[in-house]
UniProtKB/TrEMBL annotation:
<dbReference type="InterPro" id="IPR018294">
    <property type="entry name" value="ISPD_synthase_CS"/>
</dbReference>
<feature type="site" description="Transition state stabilizer">
    <location>
        <position position="23"/>
    </location>
</feature>
<feature type="site" description="Positions MEP for the nucleophilic attack">
    <location>
        <position position="152"/>
    </location>
</feature>
<feature type="site" description="Positions MEP for the nucleophilic attack">
    <location>
        <position position="208"/>
    </location>
</feature>
<dbReference type="GO" id="GO:0050518">
    <property type="term" value="F:2-C-methyl-D-erythritol 4-phosphate cytidylyltransferase activity"/>
</dbReference>
<protein>
    <recommendedName>
        <fullName>2-C-methyl-D-erythritol 4-phosphate cytidylyltransferase</fullName>
        <ecNumber>2.7.7.60</ecNumber>
    </recommendedName>
</protein>
<keyword id="KW-0808">Transferase</keyword>
<dbReference type="InterPro" id="IPR034683">
    <property type="entry name" value="IspD/TarI"/>
</dbReference>
<dbReference type="InterPro" id="IPR029044">
    <property type="entry name" value="Nucleotide-diphossugar_trans"/>
</dbReference>
<feature type="site" description="Transition state stabilizer">
    <location>
        <position position="16"/>
    </location>
</feature>
<keyword id="KW-0414">Isoprene biosynthesis</keyword>
<dbReference type="Pfam" id="PF01128">
    <property type="entry name" value="IspD"/>
</dbReference>
<comment type="similarity">
    <text>Belongs to the IspD/TarI cytidylyltransferase family. IspD subfamily.</text>
</comment>
<dbReference type="InterPro" id="IPR050088">
    <property type="entry name" value="IspD/TarI_cytidylyltransf_bact"/>
</dbReference>
<comment type="pathway">
    <text>Isoprenoid biosynthesis; isopentenyl diphosphate biosynthesis via DXP pathway; isopentenyl diphosphate from 1-deoxy-D-xylulose 5-phosphate: step 2/6.</text>
</comment>
<dbReference type="InterPro" id="IPR001228">
    <property type="entry name" value="IspD"/>
</dbReference>
<dbReference type="GO" id="GO:0019288">
    <property type="term" value="P:isopentenyl diphosphate biosynthetic process, methylerythritol 4-phosphate pathway"/>
</dbReference>
């Protein structure tokens, strides 16, 4: 496999978290959330460079986390934009155009090495791939007054990382920017361009911390992961 780079998005405001600090700094198992996320990629031998997309006000604090944890792969701090999509575009402008590029939410600290490797392989094969899990709820589409139940067996919840050949995702973002098209993830832009993407099955542990209830869930996942690691080492 060839090495890849990752753009980690940490420039949001975390409004739904309702915390008094940016959610990247919330402590999970004694470390800031963002440190857990960066560490996964720092530990992955196939990851060559990390681009951190941040708000300028958070730079000092994030730099101190990076220094303290000795994260050696952090290549550049990039100032993010208004929406997630703007932050991705700005991250892409800073990144290396010759590399497979993963795009990951800073707020998803528990993606596993094994998931990264399956995603990476799929991206080498097809040019664009993403992690997702089957939905477990019954999903209703509500349009005006009309309620319709969607066929659950074909529904998946998209996660990150989403990974791409650089030229494909860069072109998609440039097009969306010029045409003023908004999407809630990066794969959606490729879908709109009728470009094939491969779904790689992920895990429910790869959660995104969005609301206050997610903090306890994250502590639980961390404990489960630590326990599984200890068992593997025995
Ligand atoms: N302008 C933005 C918005 C979001 N993000 C990042 O994208 C990821 C996923 O976004 P989300 O969980 O929605 O985070 P926020 O936008 O910070 O949350 P909220 O919508 O509650 O304010 C987060 O790691 C967030 O920091 C970003 O880099 N730039
Ligand atoms: C990219 C994402 O994490 C995939 O589930 C999600 O779409 C981000 O959405 P948000 O509105 O920024 O939470």
């Amino acid at each position: 496999m060839e090495s890849y780079q990752v753009i980690i998005l940490a420039a949001g405001q975390g409004k739904r978290m309702k915390a008094n600090v940016n959610k990247q700094f919330i402590t999970i198992g004694s470390e800031p959330l963002l440190a857990h996320t960066i560490d996964v990629f720092e530990q992955d031998d196939w990851c060559e460079a990390i681009y951190l997309v941040i708000q300028p006000n958070d730079r000092e604090m994030i730099e101190s986390i990076v220094d303290e944890k000795n994260f050696s792969k952090v290549r550049q701090y990039v100032t993010g934009g208004k929406e997630r999509q703007d932050s991705v575009r700005l991250g892409l402008e800073a990144a290396d155009p010759s590399k497979i590029t993963m795009i990951h939410d800073g707020a998803r600290p528990f993606v596993s090495q094994e998931e990264l490797h399956r995603l990476h392989k799929a991206t080498e094969r097809t040019g664009a791939a993403f992690l997702a899990v089957p939905v477990t709820d019954t999903i209703k589409q509500v349009d005006g007054g009309r309620v319709k139940t969607l066929k659950r067996s074909v529904l998946f919840a998209a996660q990150t990382p989403q990974a791409f050949r650089y030229d494909l995702i860069q072109r998609a973002h440039e097009w969306a920017h010029n045409e003023n098209i908004q999407a809630t993830d990066d794969v959606q832009l490729l879908e709109l361009m009728e470009q094939a993407v491969e779904l790689v099955e992920g895990s429910y542990r790869n959660m995104k911390l969005t609301t206050p209830e997610d903090i306890q869930r994250a502590e639980n996942v961390l404990q489960i992961n630590r326990h599984s690691k200890q068992e593997e080492e025995l």
